[in-house]
């Protein structure tokens, strides 16, 4: 997921703050990636080009990734045919190292956005509230593509 997020931030020229649905995360993590990094980069380029707004859903993924199934699937598709996954399934997807890192980064990103909003964009006050230096906060804002 970090490489996916890196390409998503790097390739978007419009400064959008993409949000990725849990179903997309599941597909990205479980997909075999026979083309390795180049295939991932091409998929992200397509997502950036074709996504309207900031929410990345299954419809934004190529068909081969959406329909791909491992040779021995561990569990059946839990979406009940409606496209929405139960919360317990999202937790299962996020149990791995990549999933935990994604959740931690997303929580930190949301905290920064919330504090910046609460402090009316005052970076110094936000950094002080978080207990980090202003430079650290600026670095994290750049990492998470947060523009003040």
Could you please describe the fold and organization of this structure?
- The chain has 8 helices and 2 strands.
- It is mostly helical and 148 residues long.
- The protein has a two-stranded parallel ribbon with strand order 1-2.
What are the defining features of this structure?
single chain; 148 residues; mainly alpha; 2 strands; 58% helix
Summarize this structure briefly:
The protein has 8 helices and 2 strands, in the order αβααβααααα. The protein has 148 residues and is mainly α.
* Side-by-side strand order of the widest sheet: 1-2
User: Span from first to last CA?
Assistant: 25 Å
* Classification by helices and strands: mainly alpha
Proportion in helices = 55-70%
Radius of gyration: 17 Å
Order of helices and strands: HEHHEHHHHH
Based on Cα principal axes, name the global outline.
elongated
Give the beta-strand count: 2
Average pLDDT figure: 77
Low-confidence regions: 82-94
Query: What fraction of the residues are assigned to beta strands by DSSP?
Result: under 5%
**Total helical elements:** 8
How many strands, what sense, and barrel or not for the largest sheet? 2 strands, parallel
What is the element layout, followed by pairings?
Blueprint: H1 2-11, E1 19-20, H2 22-30, H3 36-50, E2 55-56, H4 63-67, H5 87-93, H6 97-118, H7 123-130, H8 134-143
Parallel strand pairs: 1-2
